[in-house]
Amino acid sequence: MSTAFEELTNRAAGRWQELTDGAEPWIRVGGGVSGQAAGSDEIFTSVLESLDRFDVSARVSRVGSLGLMYLEPIVDVTLPGGSRVFYGNVTKDIANQIIERHAGGGSPVTSRAFAFEGEKTGGLEGVPRLEDLPEFRAQVRIATRNCGRIDPYDILQYAAHGGYSALEKALFRMTPEQALDEVKASGLRGRGGAAFPTGVKWSFLAPSKAPDKYVLCNCEEGDPGAFNDKGILESDPHTLIEGMILNGYATNSNYGYVFIRHGHDIPIEATRHAVGQAYEHGLLGKNILGSGFSFDLEVALTGDSYVAGEETALMEAIEGKRSLPRYKPPFPAAAGLWQKPSNINNVKTLAYVPQIVFNGGKWFKSIGTESSAGTAIVCLTGHIKRPGMYEVPMGMSIREVLEQVGGGVSPGKRIKVLQTGGPLGGVLGDESFDVKIDFDEMSKAGAILGSGGIIVGNETVDVVDLIRALVAFNQYESCGKCFPCRLGNTHMLETLDRLCKYEAKPADLKLMDRIGESMKLGSLCGHGQLGYNPVASALKYFEEEFRVRLRVTQPEGKSTNGSMILPTRTRP
Amino acid sequence: MATTKAELGDSIRERVRCALKQQPQPTVTVLSSLLAVQDAIHYLPDEAIEETAGFCKASVNEVWSVASFYTNFRFTPPGAHVIEVCWGPSCHLAGAQGVLAAVQQELNLFREGETDDRRATLRYNTCLGACALAPVISIDHHLKGRITAGDAKDLAGGLLVD
Ligand SMILES: Cc1cc2nc3c(=O)[nH]c(=O)nc-3n(C[C@H](O)[C@H](O)[C@H](O)COP(=O)(O)O)c2cc1C
Ligand code: FES
Hints:
A: Glutaredoxin, Ubiquitin-like (UB roll), 4 domains, five-stranded mixed beta sheet, B: alpha+beta, 2 domains, binds flavin mononucleotide, binds FE2/S2 (inorganic) cluster
């Protein structure tokens, strides 16, 4: 073992010992984007105020997200040598109580605790273990294993959980070829949408002898309803950084970029800080840990543009231009960023890599299904009891995920429609809810798993109106390079608008079909090629709802059927 | 003493130059420069386009092509407060259209832009990233989730008076 690494792991173990078993309680306040939206910044402040008021001394950290977004703001308390007790939906009053009673050295505020971890200490009667919560029991947390557990701003906490040991293993005990072989053997497929085998993609780049080669990480994450890429960056950015260095090592590349959309300050700041720390600890830069391998990494930002998430458009954006997709070939492995050989992967894809290299490809392959190894990191939103970010093994049925993990819909209602895979994905109806979470099974059913967003709609949802919202997004976000996409989406939106206003003609359904076909045939990138998916899949499962709009005239006083408020600015 | 328009332009140029120079990351491009300027002064005046062109050794046309493409760039100064409303599908199902309508009405604005008194700017956002807490809005870049149309109306109204 390199001495630099040994020193890091020793300091890390010391830090963890001190936090969990030191002289003071340790209080962790959930954060991240969802945490902020739930008011966690205010709760953080009131925790500090209460500590002051009750004269309690404690260590306080902001962590990312456990994935239980529906319980944010979450505050948890670990007493020296005691259990970690979680409190959800914390208000200022509850924060006060927790600090006064629990952190002050007393017993937990049992009535407010939703779970605990570690040794069961007194006062936790009736409180379940975290891993026994139904939404936790079904999970297999690999890429999200540290989320909500460690402070994303503290590299030692990451190292205390095995962080950077996969890198140390690869650099000192594996050749680049062996590291690449593990990724190939793992069966890992891309989590950014296209599900391309990652090891195969890397093996296009590895043999190139070019001196400048780039590995890129895609955190554009423009899909509304998906927040798992940002979720990983804001909760555990070092997992991604380690994955990227391994990507560089396995493909003999020395430069990396993490590409994030501007404006998402929480994940951006966490990632930038983590990159700085990795440099300070000799994990990035020249001669990493004395291994002779060098790797430089930086964060690049894009302006608002959904198409910037397409791999070649992303390279244009890093180069500082308009994010217009390039014609392929040449493929990125031949001529990518700055026309140099490049590889691009999604955040989730790369976040699996440290565990794959450490535990071996076989281990990863043993989880999930034959064609889709590992886990799916799903984001449940919409009409579901427990919206959040959950990592479930591939092969679970969607219905199981919705019921066991998501907790189902509100009583008395049923789930009618699911929108998966982002706005270029599709919708699923009831008859498909038993389909397995698996790249191939889902695309057979007419939707895609994509980046893992699952938006749930109950029986009150007007499917035509939902589809209009998706197509409105696609129209707004078309980069304009290919006219079938630019004009096709505009026509499709106008047609759906007519349908929503009960002004459409029967020929309009046929018209949409023809527009969709032209978009598929005549567009350069997935934005146009897949743009008809939402309509096609909705016609497959909910054709009747479209037909009704052709037969009836607008019912009196039905307000949701009017115009939709939309941004008017389109790209010049 | 009143400042002349030329002097005002000079101070804007100064701030733009400062933002251009202080970019932390090694790779500096037209896009990264425009983002840095927009972060510093919240819009891109003509001076910013010219300075960016000079700084990046690009033509004014090239800079404009980038600035006009990304939808987050603005070319007029924003109001004192910015309220963003998400209209993405998760928020749509949770009633975003009602939230948007309430905010529009309260601000008397029927599209993105500034109120007449320039106290508030309304923007639409395709996804603020907190979809699990839909519907979501943000006020001066601070997110607020599980918003009702009534809450949104009050918050928007608050921006006009404080
Ligand atoms: C319009 C469009 C938008 C995309 N947006 C994203 C995105 O936000 N994040 C992402 O990882 N991939 C996105 N992709 C897919 C990327 O092109 C690419 O396939 C992916 O980043 C590769 O990573 P993976 O192999 O790890 O999946 C998008 C594709 C298209 C056509
Ligand atoms: S869809 Fe509104 S925050 Fe994501």
